UniProtKB/TrEMBL annotation:
Annotated ranges, domain Beta-ketoacyl synthase-like N-terminal: 51-146
Taxonomic source organism: Micromonospora terminaliae
Family matches, as SUPFAM superfamilies: Thiolase-like (SSF53901)
GO molecular function: acyltransferase activity
Short name of one Pfam family: Ketoacyl-synt_2
Residue ranges, annotated region (Disordered): 1-20
Matches recorded under InterPro entries: Ketoacyl_synth_N, Thiolase-like
Signal peptide: none
Name this polypeptide is given: Beta-ketoacyl synthase-like N-terminal domain-containing protein
Length: 164
C-alpha cells in the first residue's frame, strides 16, 4: 500500500538544497530532498516516534556520478582526494543521514539494479515488510543526469499490505 509519494523535481524545483557533510555532487541533496518531501506528505515534520520500524531502500543503477568523476579526475591528475569523498562515496551514508534525521529505525538497504529499478526496489521493500523486518519502507529511486544536471528522484513510502 502506498502511504505517500514524491518526486524531484516537481513544479518548478531547481537544484535541491545542499546537505551539510556532502560536497560537490547533487546525489545526496537529491536523495534528501525527495525523501523529506515524501515523509512530510505523510507525517508533517519529523522525527518519527521510536519503534516505527521504517526501512530505507535506496536504488540507483549509476550511483553518485559526479563524485565518482571528480575522484577519478583528481587521482588521474595526481591530486589529493578530500576525506568527505570517502564518506559520501557509499550510498548508505546518505540513506543513513535520512534515517537519522527522521528517526527511521528499520534496516537501510542500497541496491544497484541490473533490471527494472522500480521492480527490484519494490521487491526488496516487500521482502522487508513480509519478513517483519519493517512496518513500512521508504523506497528512493535516483539517477543523476550524465550532463551534470541534478537528475531525477522518486520516493514512495510503502506500508504493510504491498504484496501482490
Amino acid at each position: 500500500m502506498t502511504l505517500a509519494e514524491a518526486r524531484w523535481p516537481e513544479g518548478g524545483d531547481g537544484p535541491p538544497p545542499p546537505v551539510p557533510g556532502f560536497v560537490h555532487s547533487t546525489f545526496a541533496p537529491l536523495v534528501v530532498a525527495v525523501a523529506e518531501r515524501c515523509l512530510r506528505r505523510r507525517y508533517g515534520s519529523g522525527p518519527l516516534p521510536a519503534g516505527n520500524r521504517t526501512a530505507v531502500v535506496l536504488v540507483s543503477a549509476s550511483g553518485d556520478r559526479a563524485s565518482a568523476a571528480h575522484v577519478r579526475a583528481t587521482v588521474a591528475a595526481g591530486g589529493r582526494v578530500g576525506p568527505l569523498f570517502f564518506f559520501q562515496s557509499v550510498p548508505n551514508s546518505v540513506a543513513g543521514h535520512v534515517a537519522a534525521r527522521w528517526g527511521l529505525d528499520g534496516p537501510v538497504v542500497c541496491l544497484s539494479p541490473t533490471g527494472d529499478p522500480w521492480a527490484e526496489g519494490a521487491a526488496e521493500a516487500d521482502l522487508l515488510l513480509y519478513d517483519g523486518d519493517a512496518a513500512q519502507a521508504l523506497l528512493v529511486l535516483i539517477e543523476q543526469a550524465p550532463d551534470g544536471t541534478p537528475g531525477e528522484a522518486t520516493a514512495v513510502l510503502l506500508g504493510e499490505g504491498t504484496r501482490q
